[in-house]
User: Fold this.
Amino acid sequence: MGKLIKNHWARLIILTAATYQIAAAIQGFFWPKVFWDFLTKNLDGAVKPVPVLQVLNLLLGIVAIAWEWPLKWVAGTAVHRSTEARLVVYSLSALVAVLMYQATNPALYYLIGIGAYLRAYVDGEIICAEPWSLPKRGSARKVGPRGPGEV
Assistant:
């Protein structure tokens, strides 16, 4: 059997989270609710009368889908291949998602996807220029725990 490619697994989890996040944002336009309203009513201004959280969730969900299932002109760019940038943006997406009641499940999926990307990063996996492909042998320098080129 082959080895599990963790960044492909994380990509599927993030695609699921982003799809749920978009659906939750659309639902939030009709039924605005902050998840933490049982503790305080101070955050209600983020969902009504101006739907700030809904718009942020919608935009971040679209960004995640565009990043994980990229168009030809996006695939292979430095931003597309950057695991570090994904960890930062998806952490922000999880934070925005957990604030809205309808988007608590996507927040949990984002955290699982972040964990999978982090594990892939620690194991030295690279994200290929062409999505859903395997890296070519010798095409990337392996980065070990001590620095570039030292394994």
